[in-house]
């Protein structure tokens, strides 16, 4: 059966950016078709794992308290990206975020005050009631009410690019290949983090041991297809955002519940039971991202976190219960690491701990003395049984490589802008987030550029 | 209660929720989860009875099947809750029987009908006289009382024993007025069916928010309470003011009863139709029949009551009266063993939740 569609605009992808584009274009009167690669149960890409949206605001707005102005927002972005950003696009996203929040509400998204354990974000981030999947559900409802057609498990394989125009969209659906010739195309199909072969090009075989925190459907097929045809790229092709997560997490889609927040209160060793980095360098929200890399650099890409009874309730519970033992040696055996070595590592650490006040929520300066590497905060001896352990692995969140776009979200080809191709979301986020991550900013980029792409594409298609 | 697979499964899921917390704003269950790190069997049962099966968390969840975590909180909670009602019931066997089967519930009504007709026969004056003398001509007031007093109080005793056991199992403490204000406030507004933002459940049309179930439930609850008030007022008028039935239209029993009856009929019809559209797999599918039977039983109680008011002076009266009394009798007797019991457990759990919150 050939797919019949007279859609003006084909949107590739079915996450936040795709849906914002679809709603905006449909409201402008365009006929829109969404080609979502995932089945309905997994629709929404990585958006289904998100939980909030970073939003500029001059005064208290909806669930957001106080104010968060554009300058502060931009400074926060510069801090995490180390300047690797496109200032024009970044400021555009920041300034537009304020008007997005009421638009999101009008299109069915419901907000809640910041979740327990995330009070630090109450001023900057608006949380979705029920999280990202609830947002995605609401947008599908709104889009379909506006007449947007949606095909699930429709995998786009190729875009024909001729003289700065996309002339055809090829995709597979229900076991057959199909081809469409829409007036305009929006690429919103995410990054390539689920393609571990591609990750291995940059990381070597180690990448095979990485876990992918989000959807298995972000394989970067459209991204690669376009880059192969000479579309300009942004972002470091070798880099991905990776954090340290529970080593028992599923290969894909483990999402938020696999995070482990106990590193600052622990001793972390590799499979040889040796410490390799300062566990107490900074508060966890500022350090969880570097631990993805640190663990990736260890043998077999695995780490082991060890805490004792007094630290068990200092961090958010994670989905898997810790491994528990009455002695360090027993814990080592249960975790499959050398017991004698672990005992000596812990003893050495304990001996290097000094007296002082312990404050779990702030840098307390309680540091080890004469230990390499040192632990510079929260260094309390691991002495109180039972002892608990977790394994740590590298969890990839997203990739940085993307399509270069201008401020109208139009994709830039070898000879300038591609006349009828726009991009939004993770597939172009590398221009703004060249490095690091700012909580909730991915959803801001997706929403702002999704809406821009939808508006521009509709204008073009209605022309 | 013995440790069951149902509780184990619910605990597994609740621990996932506690690591995620995305649903914190939906209802009372999630804040209650997030206050704890370890969940005893009693904690899980308490959470299960706090859950109103609005299903918002299911559709918002990133870990539902086909995800390997297989989270389905509405179902897990429904099953634990159901087992708590059955295990604590007195006698438990009756609960296990009637919760599961709408057919048996209907048979109970028929049995009650046979019993009432037998009473009629024994009390029966001549047909024409009966009509002239109104209801009490068909069945004298004293005979009615002799049947309904035990039919009302025996279930209450049974429920009281169950609730006491339940209260102990969830760690309930001495109650204060503030706990009641808090819990009854939630009941009055059915706050836990608001979806956290007032737009209701995700019940009859997948992830669409709708207040249809909340309103239907409110119609049933307030309709029922009005009918109950009507009967209570009439009893007081009968015994204390020597004003026996029948009452004119503009009297308290009639005004309360007719309003309540209409609201209750509409509410049960609407609830039954919503229930037909909802996904059975997001509740305890084992008791779907019994739940539907219960909703329909309430519908029969209210519509026959209304019909009796409208056709009370016609030849249909004795037959209608028999059906009405039989359905009311079955309803009372089945209260500890039917979905009706959920209201008592919910209130107990809301009270317990209010106690815990008051300590924070």
Features:
heterodimer; A: 463 residues; alpha/beta; Flavocytochrome C3, Chain A, domain 1; 2 domains; 10 helices; elongated; B: 360 residues; 16 helices
Based on helices, strands and strand pairing, what is the structural class of chain A? alpha/beta
Please tally the β strands of chain A and state the result.
20
**Count of discrete domains of chain B:** 2
Neighbour order of strands in the largest sheet of chain A: 6-2-1-10-20-19
- The stretches of 5 or more residues of chain A where confidence is low (pLDDT under 50) are none
Question: What distance lies between the first and last C-alpha atoms of chain B, to the nearest angstrom?
Answer: 28 Å
Instruction: Give the biggest sheet of chain A.
Output: 6 strands, mixed
Mean pLDDT of chain B: 91
What's the β-strand tally of chain B?
0
Runs of chain B in which pLDDT lies below 50 for 5 or more consecutive residues are none
The chain pair forming the largest interface, with residue counts per chain, is:
A-B, 33 and 33 residues
Q: Helical amount among residues of chain B, as a percent range?
A: 55-70%
CATH homologous superfamily of the largest domain in chain A - what is it?
Answer: FAD/NAD(P)-binding domain
Average per-residue pLDDT of chain A, rounded, comes to 94
**Major β-sheet annotation of chain B:** none
Radius of gyration of chain B: 22 Å
Q: Please give the alpha-carbon distance between the first and last residues of chain A.
A: 31 Å
The count of helical stretches of chain B stands at: 16
What proportion strand of chain B? under 5%
Tally of separate helices of chain A: 10
Cofactor (chain A): FAD
Protein name (chain A): FAD-dependent tricarballylate dehydrogenase TcuA
Domain FAD-dependent oxidoreductase 2 FAD-binding (chain A): 8-434
GO molecular function, one term (chain A): oxidoreductase activity
């Amino acid at each position: 059966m050939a797919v019949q569609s007279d859609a003006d605009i084909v949107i590739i992808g079915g996450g936040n950016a795709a849906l914002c584009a679809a709603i905006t274009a449909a409201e402008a009167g365009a006929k829109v078709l969404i080609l979502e690669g995932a089945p309905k149960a997994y629709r929404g890409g990585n958006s289904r794992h998100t939980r909030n949206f970073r939003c500029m605001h001059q005064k208290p707005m909806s669930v957001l308290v106080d104010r968060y102005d554009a300058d502060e927002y931009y400074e926060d972005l510069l801090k995490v990206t180390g300047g690797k950003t496109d200032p024009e696009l970044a400021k555009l996203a920041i300034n537009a975020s304020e008007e997005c929040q009421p638009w999101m509400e009008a299109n069915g998204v419901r907000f809640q005050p910041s979740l327990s354990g995330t009070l630090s974000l109450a001023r900057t981030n608006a949380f979705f009631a029920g999280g990202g999947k609830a947002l995605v559900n609401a947008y599908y409802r709104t889009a379909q009410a506006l007449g947007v057609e949606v095909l699930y498990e429709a995998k786009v394989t190729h875009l024909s690019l001729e003289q700065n125009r996309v002339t055809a969209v090829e995709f597979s659906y229900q076991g057959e290949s199909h081809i469409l010739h829409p007036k305009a195309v929006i690429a919103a199909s995410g990054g390539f983090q689920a393609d571990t072969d591609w990750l291995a090009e940059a990381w070597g075989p180690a990448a095979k041991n990485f876990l992918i925190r989000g959807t298995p459907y972000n394989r970067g097929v459209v991204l690669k297809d376009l880059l192969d045809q000479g579309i300009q790229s942004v972002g470091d092709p070798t880099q991905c955002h990776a954090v340290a997560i529970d080593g028992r997490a599923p290969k894909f889609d483990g999402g938020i519940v696999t995070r482990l927040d106990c590193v600052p209160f622990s001793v972390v060793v590799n499979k040889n039971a040796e410490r390799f980095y300062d566990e107490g360098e900074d508060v966890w929200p500022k350090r969880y991202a570097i631990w993805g890399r640190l663990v990736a650099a260890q043998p077999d890409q695995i780490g082991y976190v060890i805490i004792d009874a007094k630290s068990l309730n200092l961090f958010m519970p994670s989905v898997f219960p810790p491994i528990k033992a009455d002695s360090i040696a027993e814990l080592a055996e249960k975790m499959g690491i050398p017991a004698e070595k672990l005992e000596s590592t812990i003893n050495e650490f304990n001996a290097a701990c000094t007296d002082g006040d312990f404050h779990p929520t702030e840098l307390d300066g309680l540091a080890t003395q004469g230990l390499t590497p040192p632990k510079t905060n929260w260094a309390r001896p691991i002495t109180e049984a039972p002892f608990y352990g977790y394994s740590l692995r590298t969890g990839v969140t997203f990739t940085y490589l993307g399509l270069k776009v201008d401020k109208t979200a139009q994709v830039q080809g070898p000879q300038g802008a591609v006349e009828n191709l726009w991009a939004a979301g993770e597939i172009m986020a590398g221009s703004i987030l060249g490095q690091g991550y700012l909580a909730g900013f991915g959803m801001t980029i997706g929403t702002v550029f999704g809406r821009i792409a939808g508006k521009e594409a509709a204008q073009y298609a209605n022309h | 209660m013995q440790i069951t697979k149902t509780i184990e499964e619910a605990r597994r899921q609740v621990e996932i929720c506690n690591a995620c917390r995305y649903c914190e704003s939906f209802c009372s269950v999630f804040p209650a989860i997030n206050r704890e790190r370890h969940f005893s069997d009693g904690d899980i049962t308490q959470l299960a009875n706090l859950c109103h099966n609005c299903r918002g968390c299911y559709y918002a969840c990133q870990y539902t099947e086909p995800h390997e975590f297989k989270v389905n909180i509405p179902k897990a909670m429904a099953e634990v809750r159901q087992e708590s009602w059955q295990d604590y019931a007195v006698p438990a066997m009756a609960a296990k029987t009637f919760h599961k089967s709408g057919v048996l519930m209907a048979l109970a009504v028929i049995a009650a009908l046979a019993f009432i007709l037998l009473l009629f026969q024994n009390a029966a004056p001549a047909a024409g006289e009966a009509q002239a003398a109104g209801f009490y001509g068909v069945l004298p007031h004293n005979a009615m009382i002799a049947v309904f007093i035990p039919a009302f109080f025996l279930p209450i005793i049974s429920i009281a024993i169950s609730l006491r056991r339940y209260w102990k199992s969830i760690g309930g403490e001495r109650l204060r007025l503030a706990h009641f204000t808090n819990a009854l406030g939630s009941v009055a507004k059915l706050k836990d069916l608001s979806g956290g933002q007032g737009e209701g459940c995700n019940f009859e049309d997948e992830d669409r928010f709708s207040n249809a179930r909340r309103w239907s439930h409110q119609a049933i609850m307030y309709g029922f309470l009005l009918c109950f008030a009507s009967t209570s007022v009439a009893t007081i008028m009968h015994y204390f003011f020597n004003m026996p039935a029948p009452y004119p239209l503009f009297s308290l029993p009639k005004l309360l009863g007719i309003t309540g009856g209409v609201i209750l009929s509409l509410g049960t019809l609407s609830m039954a139709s919503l229930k037909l559209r909802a996904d059975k797999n997001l509740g305890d599918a084992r008791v779907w029949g019994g739940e539907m039977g219960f909703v329909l039983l309430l519908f029969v109680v209210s519509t026959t009551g209304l019909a009796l008011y409208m056709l009370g002076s016609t030849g249909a009266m004795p037959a209608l009266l028999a059906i009405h009394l039989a359905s009311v009798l079955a309803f009372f007797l089945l209260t500890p063993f039917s979905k009706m019991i959920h209201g008592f457990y919910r209130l107990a759990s809301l009270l317990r939740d209010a106690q815990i919150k008051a300590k924070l």
